[in-house]
Design brief:
mainly alpha
Length: about 400
Amino acid sequence: MKVDPSAAARQRTESVLANRFPWAGLLALAMAGFICILTETLPAGLLPYISEGLGVSEALAGQLVTLYALGSLAAAIPLTALTRGWRRRPLLLGCLLGFLVFNTITALSDHYMLTLAARLLAGVCAGVLWGMIAGYARRMVPDAWKGRAMAVAMVGTPLALALGVPLGTFLGIWVGWRWVFGVMSLLTIALLAWVFWKLPDFPGQTARQRLPLRKVFTLRGIRPILGIVLLWVIAHNVLYTYITPYLEQSGLAGRVDMILLVFGLASVAGIGLTGLLIDRRLHRLIVLSTSGFAAASLALGIGSEQPLIVYVGVAVWGLTFGGAPTLLQTALAESAGENADVAQAMLVTAWNLGIGGGGLAGGILLESLGVASFSWTVLVLMLLATATALFTRSSVRM
């Protein structure tokens, strides 16, 4: 039998392309996450200027962050479940188009209620987007690369926190907060073209593939992982939300910017290490990260008055927390299988509950026991998270 040389060459080319790591598409997903996180967090650094621009108090301006979080929390599970049958790229493009519209309204609006509505709807877009990024990234690569693909797709989150928020705050102070939201709209236009050009499309789930929400929640491993998410994020936000009063005892209250920069850079390093090791050491990385954060909290409790120990403790904290979204999303996706998108929406809900719970718990601790209680509370929470990871491995696909 004769073999067509040109056909053989095409097969070899297709094989090479199939095994090429899809950097362009995954970085497009990372950019979507970057815009999502930046849209959420930017108002926190620009509250005095936003309150002046909208003619409201700083407390009311702060509700721009609250409404975004509420939109994301309320939409994540129901809208992700509703859109499971939709093709992936049109759905992603729709979410990005929502960011374009609502960030543009935020940039141009002089009316507080209109701005709040835009922020709420931007949060809705974020809830759907976060529910699909992990599953999208995993479908773009062979099984051996799924963890690495998620690490790349999630790199936008620590970059937004470590670099995007400080740069956005600086730009907002320099040229005005409205221009920052305008710049994000321009970035979103560029990203829409990038997604359309470089991101492959995938079909949604068929009706037969879609498990009811209750059954997804009861799949093996889902609940332990969500428990780890809740414990980890509450612990992180107890300390992160109230980092300024904590630093006062070590004389570093005036260096919050430097402390957060150390945390952010360590987080980027953490997600890089996660990407290198996650496909072979998922469970071990989760245990090392939760126990490492516990050790860092112990150091921050014992050495709270020693600046050097504080810097080292914050660096270890950032290193262990940077890969947390990728680790937990990967573990959840492995357990959920074809229902990964709905499981990721549950993670988004648990994550946002953790953010709110951490802020609430930190405030109660600050008023009742003082900042000295923060590190010890974090230690207890992270020991519980580590124990959950250790003792549920047999029921979790990780």
